[in-house]
Amino acid sequence: MIRISDEVREAAAVVALETTLVAHGFPPGEGVEVGLESERKVREAGAVPATVGVLDGEIVVGLTEDELSRFGADARKVGPRDLAAAMEQGATGATTVGGTLAVARAAGIAVMATGGLGGVHRGFPEPPDVSADLQQLAHTQALVVSAGVKSLLDVDATAEVLETLGVPVLGYRIDTLPLFYAAEGGPPVSARVESADEVARIASSHWEIGGGGLLLGRPPDEPLEDVDPLIDEALASAHAEGIFGQAVTPFVLAYLHRESGGRTQKANKDLVAQNAQLAGEIATSLFARS
Ligand code: PSU
Ligand code: MN
Fold first, then answer.
1. CA-CA distance, 127 to 255, in Å (whole number)?
2. Quick check: 1 pLDDT over 90?
């Protein structure tokens, strides 16, 4: 049912990587580059990358480069609820953070990296759109490294939901939750941490006492502090075009990449790689402690 690559199966320290950002978060071709760069960063940190996706109905943990290149804009966006249908229908599906976590749980992988977590969309409850990432994170004993929550969302509301769900929100050398492109100005984290080893210790303790997922927010090294007006424009444009549900995030990201002259695309690519590297360090620390 799940094909785990030999390398991942034999690895000591593993980091799961998602494919939705590869297929739907960047222009065609570029997403695959981002995925491959993330894999390199995980390896540099001494861990093994396990990129997850559904290929012709088979859940794969540890896609090869050739396999990864098949995750283009025509791939389904697969959250936790979509996995079984994609399998039975022989589909090719790019897993979101939530979908990847569901597979990581089945495969016994405890660390994953992404760009920005999904969350509560702006304007809640109109529409009542809350990413399945949140619920799945709460129920999976895994740590997600991200540049916080995507700032096209209602980040404050998302932080409140994470508290309600009992998800620790750690800040990597920062007191507030990073805002994806921007570093500062988000809601307070539940604990600030200074090192990968400290994160590994906190995650281990959390799991020992029966806790579920944790979020680690890592601010981007080169933040963009002026994207907010463009995000407002992108969301207004999505609304005007009747874009809703799963299509909103890809639409808004593509709008920003285009209208910023590629600045958000570069920032997004860089922060995904930085998160992958840190996730690799944490996976390595977790293994050393086990
Ligand atoms: N991070 C990025 N780009 C992305 C995503 C994360 O830098 O495209 C994806 C993740 O797969 C996340 C999804 O799970 O966006 C959230 O989508 P939605 O808001 O529809 O739940
Ligand atoms: Mn949604």
1. 20
2. no
Q: Which residues of 87-118 are buried (b: 16+ CB within 10 A; e: fewer)?
A: beeebbbbbbbbbbbbbbbebebbbbbbbbbb
Q: Which of 185, 182, 169 is nearest to 217 (CA)?
A: 169
Measured in Å, residue 127 CA sits from the centre of ligand 2 at: 10
Q: Which two tokens stand for residue 129?
A: 């759109």
Q: Is position 18 annotated as part of the catalytic site?
A: yes
Residue type, 243: I
Residue 3 backbone dihedrals phi, psi, to 5 degrees: -95, 115
**Residue 256 CB-half CA count within 13 A:** 28
Across the range 63-90, mean pLDDT stands at 98
**Catalytic residue chosen out of the listed positions 77, 150, 269, 281:** 150
Cα–ligand 2 centroid distance for 44 (angstroms): 33
What's the CA gap between 186 and 158, in Å, rounded? 11
105-126 pLDDT, tens per residue? 999 999 999 999 999 999 999 9
For residues 179 and 89, what is the distance between their CA atoms, to the nearest angstrom? 37
For 187, which DSSP code? P
pTM of the model: 0.98
Instruction: Dig out the tokens for 128 from the structure.
Output: 């009542």
DSSP secondary structure string for all residues of 219-284: --SS-----HHHHHHHHHHHHHTT--GGGHHHHHHHHHHHHTTTHHHHHHHHHHHHHHHHHHHHHH
Residues in the chain, how many?
290
The pLDDT of residue 87: 98
Measuring from each residue's beta carbon to the nearest atom of ligand 1, which residues come in under 6 Å?
Answer: 18, 20-21, 24-25, 96-98, 114-116, 118, 131, 133, 246, 249, 253, 268, 272
